[in-house]
Structure formats: C-alpha cells, structure tokens
Amino acid sequence: MADLVAPLESAIEILFSGQTPMWIVIGVLIGIVAGALPGIGATLGMAIVLPLTLPLEGADAIVLLICIYGAAMYSGSIPSILVNVPGTAGDAATTFDGYPMAQQGKAINALVISAVSSAAGGTVAVVMLILVSPVLVELVLLFGSPQYFLIAILGIAMITVVTTGSTVKGLTAGAFGLLLATIGVAPTVPVQRYTFGQLALLDGLNYIAILIGLFAIAEMIRLAREKQVSRSDSETGLEGSVVSGIKSVLKHPIVVLKSSAIGLLVGAVPGSGAAISNFIAYGEAMRSSKTPERFGTGTGEGVVATDAANNATVGGALIPTFSFGIPGSGSTAVLLGGLIMHGLRPGPDLFTTQLDITYSVFMAIFAANVVILLLGIFVIPRTGYLTQIDTDVIIPVVIVLSMLGALALRNNWIDVWTVFALGIVGFFMKKHNYSVIAFVMGAILGPIAEENLYRSLSISGGSIDIFLEDPLSLSLIAAIVLILLGPTIRTTIEKWRAGGRRKVS
Fold first, then answer.
1. Labelling 288: which of 182, 328, 391, 454 has CA 20 to 30 A away?
2. Does pLDDT of 235 surpass 50?
3. CA 470, CA 207: separation in Å to the nearest integer?
4. pLDDT for 91 beyond 50
5. What is the DSSP letter of 225?
C-alpha cells in the first residue's frame, strides 16, 4: 500500500491544480449532453472534442476525454427513461424499468436512481482499479518489444471476438484498417508507401481524422437518412421524488456492488463493453432478487443494476487500453488516440514513470462521478428538454465541428478529405454490417505491431526465435491461435451437439 500513496498524492495534486477542475466539469457537461441526445453518445462526443484538445497538457486532455466518456455513459439513461429511446447501446436495458417508472409518474425517481447508481458504480470501479494497479504494474513490466508485437497481434486477432455477425467481414474491415495505416513513410525505415508523389501523404493518414470520419460523419449520415421521430408526442411529464430515488439505491447495496464488479470485469474484455455488461447485470439482479416478477414493470432495482454496471464499465475499459493499447470499444479507441496524440504511450510508462498521470485519470473518474451525482440529483430532473432537440440542428453542428477539428489537427488538407471519405466509408460499413471497431483496431494496432516487429528482429539479428524464448511470449502465441481458431471450434462443437441431439431423438 505504501507504493500507492506517493502516486495518489501526485494524482490528486494534478487533479486540483491549474485548470484541471474546470476541464472535469466541462467534460461532464459535454458528456451529459452527448449521451442525452440519441444518436450522439460517448464515442461521437469524444471524437468531436479530440482534435480540440491539441493545445492542452496531456493530463488535462485525457481527463477531459475520460469525463466525457463517463458522463455520456450515464446520461444515455435520460432518454431511455423519458422517451424509451436509449441514448447509447449501453443504456438499452435501462428502458426495461426506467420507462415504465416514468409512465407511472416516477420519472424523477428513475432519473435520480440512475444518477446515484451510476456514480456509485463508477466509484466502486475506481477503487478496484487503484487496488489492482500494482499487479498491473508487475504484469506490464514483463513486456518488451517481442511481447508488444505479440500483444498487438493478439489485439488484431480479437477482431474475431469483437465482430458480431460475419467473421470474414470483421477480418476484411480489420485488414482495410491495416492497409490504410501503411500509407506514408514507414515508421522504421525511410521508405515511402502509397504516397503517389503527394507531400501531404508523407506523414500518412491521421488516425484522429479516421476516428472522426468513422464515428462522427458516418453517424450523421445515418441520422440524416432516418425519418425524424417526433419526440413531443412521447414526452413524459417529470414527476416523482428525489428522496425516494436516493432511498431506492440505498436499499440495494449488494446489487450496486455486484453490478459494479460485472461492469468492471466485462469492460476489461475487449469487444464487450456496456452494451453487454448492463444486460448481464440486469439478468443477475433479476435472478437474485426476492421479487423477480417486478422486473420489467418499473422497479428501481432494475435501474440500479443496469446503471451501476454501465458506469463501472468505463473503469474496466481502461485496463486493456492503458496496459496494452488494445481498445475494446469505439470510445476507448478515441481515448487511445488521445493518449498517443499527447505523447502518452500505453504500456510500462503509464504504470511507472507516468503513474501519477494514470492515477489522475482514475481520480478524474471519481471526481466526474461526484459531479454526475450532484447534477443528477439537482439539475437533470429539470432538463428533460435535452431529449427533444431536433436532429436537423444536431447534424450541421456536428459536421462543421468535425471538419474544423480535422483541419486543426495538422493544418493538412488531407485530414479534411480523410474525415469526409471515411465518413462515407463508415456509413456503408455499418449499413452492410462490417465492424467499425475491427477497422479501428487494424488502423491503430497495425503501426504498433510493425514498429515492434522491426525492433525485435533488429535485436535478434533477424531470428524469429526471439518470439519463442520465454513463457510469456509462448502464452501470447497460444492465446492468438486459440482466438483465431475460436469460431471454427465453436462451430464444430455446435454441429457435434446438434448431431448428438438428432441421434437421441
């Protein structure tokens, strides 16, 4: 525990010095607005703000992004409760009991339950993160260039896990991301690749511009094509009691703890995230409840479970992102882009020489949850109009901010074209069920894999034995093989079971 004290003191000093407290509040406010507007969410909100963080210090920029992330995960429950439209995929299960509560005249109860349980879940996750960080430090320090190459390949192999639907489509999307990452001068040798004589392409495509295009522009194209739903007809009057909402959470401390643990563990698995954790937490709360028949009819226990898990997922998602540079979701992909853009490389440095910055991010989550709690109790119950802003207003604002942000990245016209082109590509990828996350993983992890492969082979004089010399490397290779063969093994087992059932019948 003594090893935790000094970095925590430095983290607290960073958090409450200079302009950092202001960025925490601004991040929470942006996140709440982004999450409360259906179709926006954490990923899009972070992608828009990311290029605007260039003038900030690295710690302030990451604190701002993580506060947007956490607040948007919480505020997605606002439209889920008021109009039965999840603000984010991670709030879908909140509609099961949140909207029925609003219909019963308990909208304020549900909103307060959401805020208190979200803050509690996020806080529990932060405490768990700080307690396990010494173990993470020891683990990360075992990694050298060969292991980082293998962990990057493992991340790319995770495409088979994060892809829903066709595995071939997921691998195709990942390969496309890898291909775009090769544009420009090679990271290890002075060789131009796919520049076509254009000076603007020497530095390659900016991954932040790629993220903005894929998440912001593509989503705006999708929203523009969808028929606008009138929300005024479905608006629910904000009635209920703040005190009753707080009491509902206090009645279920075990549900909060269990759901927080589920959110943390699921969030730590790349490709999972809040869209999965809140359903698992909801199912577990229903299973262990003394009154499971009340779930789905407007019980506060259901809202407690989903929202505690939802915000705890944010802390869990930081484990693979900070430790190995593996983004498990669109939001953590944007966060990873922010880390790299501000010179903060995932890996040993974030748990040794830059441990104070890592802890400042953890503490920023805690501070953001305090702000969320205060706003959720005293302000949010009076701002139901956030869910009724027309997409005709949202779309042009987002597009203009995205293009300005792209131009601000490097003052390079190629970034603006990248945002425009990848926005169209991203729209059609989503339309035809190609995994955008797989594409992002290929684009971000490809250069990391290439750089560490070259460095490892330089150390070994070109011998691949360097990847087979220690148990950790062999374990990573085994994990890669297992992940790649996973879909085939699963299909074979299902066929075998189906054949066995037919014989029995």
1. 328
2. no
3. 33
4. yes
5. H
* For range 299-311, the mean pLDDT: 87
Residue in the block written with tokens 């409840």: 289
Of the chain, the percentage scoring pLDDT greater than 90 comes to 5
Dihedral in degrees, nearest 10, Cα atoms 469, 473, 479, 483: -100
**CB burial string 149-172: b at 16+ within 10 A, e below:** bbbbbbbbbbbbbbbeeebebbbb
pLDDT band for position 230 (cuts 50, 70, 90): very low
373: Cβ contacts below 8 Å, ≥ 6 apart: 115, 116, 119
For residues 370 and 116, the answer to whether their CB atoms sit within 8 Å is no
pLDDT in the model for residue 421: 92
Q: Tell me the average pLDDT across 434-446.
A: 80
Helices 95-103 and 107-140, packing angle to 10 deg = 160
Please check whether residue 334 is in contact with residue 31, taking contact to mean a CB–CB distance below 8 angstroms. no
Element (H, E) at 56: none
Which H or E run contains 398?
helix 391-410
Looking up tokens 């250069």, which residue turns up? 447
The rounded radius of gyration (Å) of the Cα atoms in the chain is: 23
Q: Which residue has the tokens 């882009």?
A: 337
3-state secondary structure of 272: coil
The sign of the CA dihedral 284, 322, 133, 66 is negative
CA 306 distance to own-chain centroid: 17
For the whole prediction, is pTM greater than 0.90?
no
Would you say 73 and 65 are in contact if contact means Cβ atoms under 8 Å apart? Answer: no
Q: Provide φ and ψ at 400, rounded to 5°.
A: -65, -45
The pLDDT of residue 27 is 92
**How distant, in Å, are the alpha carbons of 221, 333, 358, 446 from that of 430?**
11, 17, 33, 22
Q: 359 falls in which pLDDT band (50, 70, 90)? A: confident
Distance separating alpha carbons of residues 305 and 291, to the nearest angstrom: 14
- Beta strand 192-193 pairing with 184-185: antiparallel
- Count the alpha carbons within 13 Å of 365 in the hemisphere toward its beta carbon: 30
Angle at 204 between CA 201 and CA 206, to 5 degrees: 115
